[in-house]
Amino acid sequence: MTERAGKVTGAVTVSVDGYSAGLHQTEERPFGDDGGDGTGAGLHAWMFETPDENRAEVEQMTAADAFVMGRNMFGPVRGAWDRPWNGWWGDDPPFHAPVFVLTHHAREPQPMAGGTTYHFVTDGIVAALDRARAAAGAGEVSVLGGATTLNQYLAAGLIDELRLHIAPLTLCAGTRLFEGVPALRLEQVSARAASLVTHVTYRVLR
């Protein structure tokens, strides 16, 4: 594995009880029972209903020089992976940088409008991160999730900074951050309360 250059961050929106998605996820409802209609309107209301209040955090989420995401964050849980599919993010995704998608299904790189190119990585989290670091140079790599992917990187000790966007609701079941992750020591870097979310950044201590 290459030596660390830029910072590796992890970012995710979670409920107060730690879930990044509810049960019953489908192609039409990627966040499942998320306190809204399943399209993110519950957990992610802070992005859609109060964007001006949270502009700095929204912009920060796509400001890295390379990204890593899990297959489910790129595309649907089931049903559409083997047909022509540009992912959840439309024809001009907000990343404008290389995105390395963890998957068991090999696929050619997929260039998109605006400078985003999806690269599909079949040989695990370390390989995906190495490729993202090489693409980012001395810049930041962001592991955007979902929680299952972020948990793997946290468990492997590969995250330097964790950025949580905590929505004021509970889901009680679903996909949970920190599931299967050993105990962590975190140092709070910043915290900011907004009307529909609290943004907290932690440094992961080693």
What can you see in these coordinates?
The protein has 206 residues and is α/β, with parallel strands linked by helices. It has a single domain (8-205), classed as 3-Layer(aba) Sandwich (Dihydrofolate Reductase, subunit A), CATH 3.40.430.10. The protein is 17% helix and 29% strand. Strand 3, helix 3 and strand 4 form a beta-alpha-beta unit. The longest helix has 12 residues, at 125-136. It starts with 7 loop residues before the first strand and ends with a strand. 37% of the residues are buried.
Structural class: alpha/beta
How many domains would you count in the coordinates? 1
| N-to-C order of helices and strands | EEHHEHEEEHEHEEEE
Shape: globular
Unreliable stretches: none
Q: What is the beta-strand fraction?
A: 25-35%
**How many helices?**
5
Q: Percent range for helical residues?
A: 10-25%
Largest beta-sheet details: 9 strands, mixed
Query: Compute the gyration radius: what is it?
Result: 16 Å
Tell me the CATH architecture. Answer: 3-Layer(aba) Sandwich
Q: Which fold name is given in CATH as the topology?
A: Dihydrofolate Reductase, subunit A
Spatial strand arrangement across the major sheet? 5-6-4-3-7-1-8-11-10
Q: Determine and state the CATH class.
A: Alpha Beta
Q: Any idea what the CATH superfamily is called?
A: Dihydrofolate Reductase, subunit A
Pfam families: RibD_C
Domain Bacterial bifunctional deaminase-reductase C-terminal: 7-194
Protein name: Dihydrofolate reductase family protein
InterPro entries: DHFR-like_dom_sf, RibDG_C, Riboflavin_Biosynth_HTPR
